[in-house]
Amino acid sequence: MTTLSSLKDIRVGVAIDIDAQPYQVLWADFMRTAQRKPVMRTKLRNLITGQVLEKTFKPGDKVAEADLQRGQANFMYRDGDNFNFMDNATFEQFGFALDQIGDIGNYVKEGSDVDLLKFNGNPVAVLLPPKVELQVIEAPPGVKGDSAANVTKQVKVETGHLVNVPLFIREGDTVRINTSTGDYVERVNK
Q: What is this structure's pTM?
């Protein structure tokens, strides 16, 4: 376990260890006032329970980076609100509830690989690449004359998620989607 050397090392995306639990930094704000010592205010999410915690760190606080192991997993299937995966290295199967993986459920399709984070040998989170390609399964027709400026329509992709896309996207097209914002990026030519 490595100790972070300064408060400024606590930044968005870093995983830290608090009371033997891995927390990911969701928000960090370094505050320096004239009369007081600088502090780092943070909003942290527990990678195991999903609980969000607000914590302030002062100079001299010992903050250790969480010892996370990375790997690959394959998304096998969805069973209601449960998502079932298999570790590509050990072939061990595990699941996450919808509230544990959040928006990832909108973009992961059966048979696709995801990045896996483990803490003390146990899977705690899955991560998607920044962009994914999904096929459009339902698309209303684009109405002629509606092409004034940045007009969009909602389509359903193969995961069941609704995405706003330009009018020229049709059923059967494959679209690239930004997984952090949920926005349409481009149509993929196959």
A: 0.72
